[in-house]
Amino acid sequence: xxxxxxxxxxxxxxxxxxxxxxxxxxxxxxxxxxxxxxxxxxxxxxxxxxxxxxxxxxxxxxxxxxxxxxxxxxxxxxxxxxxxxxxxxxxxxxxxxxxxxxxxxxxxxxxxxxxxxxxxxxxxxxxxxxxxxxxxxxxxxxxxxxxxxxxxxxxxxxxxxxxxxxxxxxxxxxxxxxxxxxxxxxxxxxxxxxxxxxxxxxxxxxxxxxxxxxxxxxxxxx
Length: 222
Prior knowledge:
Residues 1-23 form the signal peptide. This protein is of the alpha+beta class and 222 residues long. 29% of the residues lie in helices and 30% in strands. The chain has helices at residues 2-12, 62-74, 112-125, 156-165, 167-172, 193-202, and strands at 38-42, 78-91, 96-108, 130-136, 146-152, 175-179, 183-189, 213-221. The protein is globular.
């Protein structure tokens, strides 16, 4: 799919010439237009799921992946694949964990404005309260306010139980996403990095500093 869409970009002149302001080559990674410059975490689910055995949590979201890819292309971005994840979020109102099947989308050739527009269309089209975005930035960039980290060895149940048992972690971290290979993906505020490290290592996870990606986090809502 990525190769096909890259061909479309070349045909439109977006990987080799001028495109709309803030899009196309100006927003691509230097020397590699297929390298992701941002992530978008989203789902098409609108139900509240509290049972980890709910069959909706087995959905592969193949159609949703194609739909978000199409939205990205319409906004002059390039889909660079996605990762199927199971989200776990703590509901302060219900005092329990909620679950959702979602995808972490890797987007190339998008800047902050395009990323926000893509997220807002995904939010509107799939009736979501908000969509989480993460724009990759250099660690010393003034726009950095968060990091993503991937922690091996943490499954959905272990993460859910850990949040339920740790009032500080569930208030500050709120939730996270777990891949099919039991790797926990967290998007955390810079100020909460040490808290996140202690929390996941306490769950038996392997904190990997090499996986840290610095950037700007935003919850795009109405």
